[in-house]
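Hi C.,

You asked whether I'd gotten around to modeling the 367-residue construct. I have! Everything is below, sequence then structure, no commentary in between.
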Amino acid sequence: MKTGTACRLPSACRSLLAAFVSAFVWLPGHAIAESAKWGPFPIYEWETADFDGPRKESTYTPLDSASESWEICALIPHLKDAYWLAVNFGLVQEAERLGVSLSIHSAGGYDHLDRQIAQAQDCVSRDPDAMIVSAVEESGLNGVLEAAVSKGIPIIDLINGLTFQGISARSAGDYYDSAYLAARYLVDRHAGEDRDILVAWFPGPKLSAWAQRGNQGFAAGVEESNVMIVATEYGDTGRQVQGDLIERVLDRYGSVDYIVGTTVSAEAAASILRQKNLADVTDILAYYFGPGVYRGIRRGTILAAPSDQQAIQGRIAVDQAVRLLQGAPLQRFVGPKVRMLDQDSLQDFDLSSTMAPIGFRPTFDVN
């Protein structure tokens, strides 16, 4: 494993690495197993890439190895939170397990479409065997991806969603499911109560397909219930942005019953509510999972969160790329089943599907 050897922005890489050296001391005494064997794994399988059509329950069994050291280029939105570090972990682990070459490029945030376009163009110019794409905007890379497909490079859509019609496969949990489960958790918790339950909702970046799916799922989950969404605030998943959005809502309403949103929203909310002496008034849910949320659930500062098992999604994407290149049987549009986790259900959950292990650093090259 080579860490950070091919980052296009060396100073940015160094700062990221330094940040994560201190960030991953969140689970003292707990280590996540890095087992090479991870399947068969329970999944949903869709007929179409947009996940709107019928789906079936299935299992995903990865290949034992690659027939040659295929070269794969991966684009991800950022490494500013533990969600994408877990994706990074899954990509790297599967590339190493299968024996393929992998380069990973981080755009640095959802407000850096121009940077991701440049990274995609650079990737295509290097003529990789396949590309794995987690886009910062669902349509922003379409021109570059068209150029890639015209060169015979297959595209695997990882997690975030693309409007580009030429993809060969997709590995993604459906954020509709994640947000729907979070909403139903609240509805069930307050079933039969004769009062409105007020929720401030923070879905993520407005131009991202995953945040839009999350918004649809959460709205559907609270329909015809006493759970009322009083504010919906979109924004990048940086800590400062989410904190500012939460502060704005609390300034407007004074307090709400719940803050529900991204992992970064949940972590920021815990600190803000404590500062404002609202920790006993407002509860917190995230609608996806990471180490900060895990720690919050264990400590009781965050109530619950679903996991879309993002490390497995990264692993599947690499395996799909290799299958495409080798002509092996392929499950094209798949994602791990989403699981709702609270203090009780965490007891039997395999964290290696969802979080990078202690000490794992952002990794940009596997050779």
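If it helps when you're writing up: DSSP finds ten helices and 15 strands in the chain.

Thanks,
B.
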